[in-house]
Amino acid sequence: MKTRALLVAAALVAFTGSAALADSIQHGDLTIKDAWSRATPPKAKGAGAFVSITNNGSEDAHLTGAVSGYAKRTEIHEMAVNDGVMKMRKLEDGVVIPAGKTLELKPGSYHVMFMGLKQPFKMGEELKVTLEFEKAGPVEVTFPVMKMGAKSGKMHH
Amino acid sequence: MNVAKTIRYGAWAAVALLVAAVSAVTVMKFVKEDVPQAATVQIGGPFELVDGKGQVFTDKNLDGKPTLMFFGFTYCPDVCPTTLSDMQGWIDNLGPKADDLNFVFVSVDPERDTPDVIADYVAAFGSHVVPLTGSVDQVKKVVKDYRVYARKVPLEDGDYTMDHTAAVYMLNGDLDFVGTISYQEPEETALPKIRKLLGSS
């Protein structure tokens, strides 16, 4: 019993380890990399996560949604500041990534939106979020949590 | 007798009118000379809100110091954390001079941002920024007086998000609006603006 638990734990560690090391994921024709999120203040109910998705295929790819257990809802949103006003909308139909193009989910633009966070994201945590694609299907992506207010997923001290 | 009285009252009325006219001209002249100062668009003014401890916080609490004021809400995933983090960067950069400024975060979502919610949210970025919220009417008044754009946008299940002005307002010590620092404005331009604001007090 104990041994089994240990084995499971070891497998989990190994899995997390490999996921953390892998800085890019190949998923069909898609290259998914530079995933990151940031720590949230206590009681914050919203959070965003960011990632870069390159479509190496010859057909358009379609990011249709995201799934996670961290919030009441996990969605693909678009944010824009126009004339000094911030507007954020859920993209009901997701985002199309044209063949040969890269879609950047980044601050001030597209993001994975966590609405109604169950608990705050802490720096150093790794979020597991499943991104759903129309043709390529679902893929789990690891989003390391950077410090609060971080502007990118790059570690700099 | 009635005639005499009427004439007397009439005379006094004429004197009063003359005095009023002369003062009006004087005031107008004074105002006219003052026009270059007063011609700025009316943004801002006195306000009454509630701080993170649930205490009343008004413009008087700004102590006549220049103020950097941001309008946001705690459900905000991007602009608000980014701006609070930028503000903290400016505070670190200014060092002790930061004490000569007020840094204020005003919620445009008072229904969800109760004093303890906004207090925890803002405190997570540093201790310098004052979290403010208030009753729906108090916040509505500030939003109107400060010409802030804030609109509730419904989402599913009765949830909502807020469209809102993303710029940081710069107010001088007299609470006059002097400009903004835009979202994601680089420190190279934001800091000189803040130093100028400090110098103007």
What name goes with the CATH superfamily of chain A? PCu(A)C copper chaperone
Largest interface: A-B, 33 and 37 residues
Strand content of chain B: 15-25%
| Relative strand content of chain A | over 45%
Shape of chain B: elongated
The Rg value of chain B, from CA coordinates, equals 23 Å
Figure out the total of helices of chain A.
1
Fraction in helix of chain A: 10-25%
Q: How would you describe the overall organization of this protein?
A:
- The complex is a heterodimer of chains A (157) and B (201).
- Chain A is mainly beta and 157 residues long.
- Chain A contains 1 helix and 11 strands.
- Chain A has one domain: PCu(A)C copper chaperone (Immunoglobulin-like).
- The longest helix of chain A has 20 residues.
- Chain A is globular.
- In chain B, helix 2 packs across helix 5.
- Chain B has 2 domains: 39 residues; 152 residues, 3-Layer(aba) Sandwich (Glutaredoxin), CATH 3.40.30.10.
- Chain B has 201 residues and is an alpha+beta fold.
- At the A-B interface, strand 3, strand 5, strand 6 and strand 9 of A face helix 2, helix 3 and strand 7 of B.
Keywords:
heterodimer; A: mainly beta; Immunoglobulin-like; eleven-stranded mixed β-sheet; 13% helix; B: alpha+beta; Glutaredoxin; 2 domains; seven-stranded mixed β-sheet; two-stranded antiparallel sheet; 5 helices; 9 strands; 42% helix; 22% strand; Lxx211020-like (chain A)
Layout of helices and strands, plus pairs?
The complex is a heterodimer of chains A (157) and B (201).
Chain A: H1 2-21, E1 24-27, E2 30-38, E3 46-55, E4 61-67, E5 71-82, E6 85-90, E7 95-97, E8 102-105, E9 110-117, E10 126-133, E11 137-146
Parallel strand pairs in A: 2-11
Antiparallel strand pairs in A: 1-2, 2-3, 3-8, 3-9, 4-7, 4-10, 5-6, 5-9, 10-11
Chain B: H1 2-38, E1 48-51, E2 56-58, E3 67-72, H2 79-94, E4 102-107, H3 115-123, E5 129-133, H4 136-145, E6 150-154, E7 160-165, E8 168-171, E9 177-181, H5 187-199
Parallel strand pairs in B: 3-4, 4-5
Antiparallel strand pairs in B: 1-2, 1-5, 3-8, 6-7, 8-9
Helix pairs in contact in B: 2-5
